[in-house]
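Folded chain entry —
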Amino acid sequence: MRIPRTRGFGVQSPFAYRFLRRVVAPKSNGTWPVLWLCSNRSLRKEKLLSRLNEYCCEKNLTYVGLLGEEIPTYEELLEHLDISTVLFIDGIQKKSEMKYLWLKLLEGTHRGGAFDLYDCGILFFNQTYYKRVYKVNY
């Protein structure tokens, strides 16, 4: 789905709609910010991470693949995840290890909602959320 033109169509979950509108692509004063049109992906990702930090203030936010550290295995990640965890995975289309980890996490029974932003993914482990993957053209 294309964020600037969605207006919520195709997203039935109130949680997912709020997350897309407030974190992934927030509006500013009724118009789309110039940042949205910016082609600098690293700047857009920094802004996304900033909004994600604000959104997840009381939740456990975990980052994978941002600083080039060693990629954890699926089993290692599961040891540290609970219902309040939000997982941000960078490079899910660039690196084969990240793509494998992302697909393995999507197949798992522990997760709630997931957002595939093509170059990164955001995964919620609260099982009260509808288990669906939203592919967003970010």
Remarks:
- The longest strand covers residues 85-90.
- The chain has one domain: 13-135.
